[in-house]
Design a protein that fits this description.
Number of helices of chain B: 8
Number of domains of chain A: 1
Shape of chain A: globular
Number of helices of chain A: 13
CATH class of chain A: Mainly Alpha
Strand order of the largest sheet of chain A: 1-2
Strand content of chain B: 25-35%
Oligomer: heterodimer
Helix content of chain B: 10-25%
Order of helices and strands of chain A: HEEHHHHHHHHHHHH
Number of strands of chain B: 21
CATH topology of chain A: MetI-like fold
Distance between the termini of chain B: 41 Å
Distance between the termini of chain A: 47 Å
Chain lengths: ~290, ~350
């Protein structure tokens, strides 16, 4: 047998990794480096890039629309994350028990996750529609006043948060299910003998035992929430009165409506920095040791 | 007063797999009762039925004269020590011990008193602030015990509590558990697959196989008067030796390789003759029973000899003074009146 030398051995390894390396260089490293360079420039795609130093940063600090979009995004997160975690946890808990057609329900709750966001948004646009929407028609049927889901500046963002929860909750149900199945059954049995009720078992055993999953879901939905784009883009275009203008939608508008590429890049880095701060705070507040 | 009675208890899982079949047993107040059997024999199921973690398919379970079939586990006044201890990993030792008391809405001071008392009994005083992760196997075992003790229950249930410990610790804990029982005097049901544990700890032992009770008795009666071949082979290490053969009307047992007079007269039936390893002796003079040594196992204070007697594999225990070699042919004799006879068809004991 011919002895394979070290170099040949490595070559095969690199070859195997090549598709990803190319992907990474092209779609992650290059845009990242390029947008970092853009931060210090003014560029409208067509003309030449002009170096402007820190002008983009000072602009950002005084851009009230950016801060509004950040506020909007935080409103979205404040509704979306707790709603999502609570619903996912409750449903996962139910699906973890021996119920009829468990397999069907597990698949059914996951279905919205794999449907295209644009499709989901268009369906919900119909559901939320003021005059012809299903929700308002049902409300009128039982003689309740119609709700201006997407028309009111106060309600538009919560409406989007509800829809996003419906779309994503299936993924978090699956994550929670996996977490729940890692909790040893004997802990619940010990708690039964110790005299714990169902609610006490949930609070004293389930919640602390699946803390790592809760943290993961919290961070994933924070990242997902900050990149809120398709929903307001398709549904409201950021309106009414910029009340659903999310950070990413604002960045998109700066880049591709107004061709402020340098400023959009600056916004992008600023949002990434803010996300990092938020995630660090979340972990400090909620993370405990891992027990399983 | 916590006498435990099971009446005609059956447990069938998913309408198919039988857990236990027609269990009838009574455990007296303050008794240390051991359920023992091979894996899958239904011993843990029986324990879980008493704990309330499983519901019987039929039958009645009484604790202290009260029917408890429909009472939830937490209200039965029983505690259980699990095989994997089932300590709450996110709680400190103190919180683990306090948890059942907290749920029962004891006052803070009362909880503290009870926890400190249990910790003192079990030697856990210095470990109260630790999490289970930072404890050794033996210490975890003690915490699991402590969580049961604090509640001062009528009934203790143990589900193979020592099987995760190493051999040395297991023997230590065995003695400790027994002493604890003498001190607390609570009715105890102890499940194990280890017959040595059963023999050394139990006031009374119940042997289960395939979901059915085989025999209930005190350890020595089980050892000396097994009711069937299963019990005979299960109790005792090394196991009892068996020879298949026939009884003659003149009281002689005969098999392929030898015959031996065991009674004045006997019915003519096909039987299995059982004899324990310590009741077989190697002798110098010529006898009817000859064996060839296949393995010598020196234990220290004794030797286990593995022999082939014809086609039958036989083990005997003898003193380490004698010198034996593999391949050596020896003559054997059986201790009179130490025979166990079982009928061949059902394996039930025959007393002549």
């Amino acid at each position: 047998m011919k002895k394979m030398n070290k170099y040949e051995n490595n070559r095969v390894g690199y070859l195997m990794g090549l598709p990803y390396i190319i992907f990474f260089l092209l779609f992650v490293a290059y845009p990242l480096i390029f947008s970092f360079i853009l931060v210090f420039h003014k560029w409208d795609i067509i003309g030449p890039m002009n170096f402007v130093g820190f002008v983009n940063f000072s602009h950002l600090l005084h851009d009230s629309l950016f801060w509004k979009s950040l506020g909007n995004t935080l409103i979205f997160l404040a509704i979306h994350i707790p709603l999502q975690i609570i619903i996912a946890l409750v449903i996962a808990n139910i699906l973890n028990q021996k119920i009829v057609a468990r397999g069907f329900f597990r698949a059914a709750f996951f279905l919205p996750v794999v449907i295209s966001g644009v499709v989901v948004t268009m369906i919900w646009q119909q559901l939320y529609s003021q005059e012809t929407g299903l929700f308002n028609m049902l409300l009128s049927k039982i003689s309740l006043p119609k709700i201006p889901w997407l028309i009111s500046t106060k309600l538009a963002m919560p409406s989007i948060a509800i829809m996003a929860t419906w779309k994503n909750v299936g993924l978090y149900i699956v994550l929670f299910l996996a977490g729940l199945q890692n909790v040893p059954v004997s802990l619940y049995e010990a708690a039964d003998l110790d005299g714990a009720t169902g609610v006490q078992k949930f609070l004293h055993i389930t919640i602390p035992m699946i803390n790592p999953t809760i943290i993961m879901v919290l961070i994933l939905s924070t990242l997902g929430g900050f990149s809120l784009f398709i929903e307001p883009y398709v549904m409201t275009g950021g309106g009414p009165m910029n009340s659903t203008l999310s950070c990413v939608l604002y960045i998109y508008k700066q880049a591709f409506y107004f061709n402020h590429m340098g400023y959009a890049a600056t916004l992008g880095f600023a949002v990434a920095f803010i996300i990092m701060i938020v995630v660090i705070i979340q972990r400090r507040l909620f993370e405990t040791e891992i027990y399983t | 007063m916590a006498k435990i009675v099971l009446k005609n208890v059956n447990k069938i899982f998913n309408d198919k797999a039988v857990g236990v079949k027609d269990i009838n047993l009574a455990v007296n107040d303050k008794e240390f009762f051991v359920l023992v059997g091979p894996s899958g024999c239904g011993k843990s199921t029986t324990l879980r039925l008493i704990a309330g973690l499983e519901k019987p398919s039929s039958g009645e379970i009484y604790v202290g004269g009260k029917l408890i079939n429909d009472i939830p586990p937490g209200k039965r006044d029983v505690t259980m020590v699990f095989q994997d201890y089932a300590l709450y990993p996110h709680m400190t030792v103190y919180e683990n011990l306090a948890f059942p008391l907290k749920l029962r809405k004891y006052k803070r001071k009362e909880i503290n008193d009870k926890v400190q008392k249990a910790a003192k009994i079990l030697g856990l005083e210095g470990l109260l602030e630790r999490k289970p992760k930072a404890l050794s196997g033996g210490q975890r075992q003690r915490v699991a015990l402590g969580r049961s003790i604090v509640r001062n229950p009528k009934v203790f249930l143990f589900d193979e509590p020592l099987s995760n410990l190493d051999a040395k610790l297991r023997i230590e804990m065995r003695a400790e558990l027994k002493q604890l029982h003498q001190r607390l005097k609570a009715t105890t049901i102890y499940v194990t697959h280890d017959q040595t544990e059963a023999m050394t700890m139990g006031d009374k032992i119940c042997i289960l196989n395939n979901g059915k009770i085989q025999q209930i008795n005190d350890p020595l009666s089980l050892y000396n008067y097994p009711v069937n071949k299963f019990v005979a082979s299960f109790i005792g290490t090394p196991s009892m030796n068996f020879f298949e053969g026939k009884l003659e009307s003149n009281g002689t047992f005969g098999c392929e390789d030898f015959s031996i007079k065991i009674a004045g007269s006997a019915p003519e039936v096909e039987v299995i003759l059982g004899i324990r390893p310590e009741d077989i002796y190697p002798v110098k003079q010529d006898t009817d029973i000859r064996g060839r040594i296949t393995l010598v196992e020196p234990i220290g204070n004794e030797i286990f000899l593995h022999l082939d007697v014809g086609k039958t594999h036989v083990v005997l225990r003898t003193s380490p003074t004698s010198d034996f070699k593999t391949g050596q042919a020896i003559n054997l004799t059986f201790e009179k009146k130490k025979f166990h006879l079982f009928n061949k068809s059902e394996g039930l004991r025959i007393d002549l």
